[in-house]
Design brief:
By secondary structure, the chain is mainly alpha-helical. The chain contains eight helices and no strands.
Length: 153
């Protein structure tokens, strides 16, 4: 039987990466990369552009996109003919999408924080009004939800 993922430990690791200067997409993906024992430097490179809702445009939350990447890290396919594996990952991603929206009311960065991070004034407002803390809470809950999902698969 596979060991259950420790959401708190993974979340703490993500917060540590964020404290080093990584964005949330990079931080969450690095935490799961480390948990899964994946070597190499491609992560966080793959996740960099997803920060702030894809390049700070307010689209899909970086923690959300990193979670989708983590599902792929655990369950993704390497054989293009593995249709069953592909559909299994799609199903898990759809379930995660629905749970994330149910929990937070949106999967988009702008919908979650109400600010456009690509606007210097709104980005500054995010910093001065507790944006980091709010996003940290989102990451903690996202990590918990994702670990529960992956522990079931």
């Amino acid at each position: 039987m596979e060991e259950k993922m420790d959401a708190k430990a993974i979340s703490e690791k993500a917060k540590g990466y964020f404290g080093q200067g990584y964005n949330w997409a990079e931080s969450v993906s690095l935490s799961f990369k480390e948990y899964f024992g994946i070597e190499g430097s491609i992560i966080p490179k793959l996740a960099t552009g997803f920060g702030g809702g894809v390049g700070r445009k307010g689209s899909l939350c970086g923690a959300f996109t990193a979670s989708i990447m983590a599902i792929g890290m655990k369950m993704g396919r390497t054989d293009p003919k593995d249709r069953e594996g592909l559909l299994k990952v799609y199903d898990k991603c759809q379930q995660f999408w629905e749970q994330f929206e149910k929990e937070f009311g949106s999967r988009d960065c702008y919908g979650l924080i109400g600010l456009h991070l690509d606007d210097p004034e709104e980005s500054k407002k995010w910093l001065t009004t507790g944006g980091r803390e709010k996003c940290t809470g989102i990451v903690e809950k996202t990590t918990q939800i994702l670990c529960e999902f992956l522990n079931k698969s």
